[in-house]
């Protein structure tokens, strides 16, 4: 019995009973959480010459055939996504984390199989006098 509706729910474990939803209606998403990198990003003069800790969460939308094939060749290597993000954030410097998020989105979308990316950037030590865990931005970019 389902506690929410009070009805019996039957679930079949046969592969043929599952329906893969089109990526346009309910996309497949690779979730990358808690990537921490030391980046040069900040508008204050004291921030512009030193690396500071930032945390990234990335959602990568793609048609993941691997959900039905169980074949590594049919998915996107998230290690290569992380390497591209690291390359951009380590080799470039930024005044604003909004711009850094945009550059990360561009690097991720360089893989033509990726349809959309959500980039969340959090500055882990914002230069404010209040007790603030982080400040950040979230952007969504599509092909």
Give a verbal description of the structure.
- The protein has helices at 66-69, 78-91, 97-108, and strands spanning 28-41, 52-62, 93-94, 114-123, 135-142.
- By secondary structure, it is an alpha+beta fold.
- The protein has a single domain, classed as GTP Cyclohydrolase I, domain 2.
- Strands 3-1-2-4-5 form a 5-stranded mixed beta sheet.
- The longest helix has 14 residues, at 78-91.
- Mean pLDDT is 87; it is low at 1-13 and 15-21.
Quick description:
The protein is α+β, with helices and mostly antiparallel strands.
Give the termini distance in whole angstroms.
44 Å
Class by alpha and beta content? alpha+beta
Summed over residues and divided by their number, the pLDDT gives a mean of 87
In total, the number of domains comes to 1
So how many helices? Answer: 3
| CATH architecture label | 2-Layer Sandwich
**Biggest pleated-sheet summary:** 5 strands, mixed
Radius of gyration: 20 Å
Proportion of beta-strand residues:
25-35%
What is the name of the CATH topology?
A: GTP Cyclohydrolase I, domain 2
Oligomer: single chain
Question: Given the C-alpha coordinates, what overall shape results?
Answer: elongated
CATH class: Alpha Beta
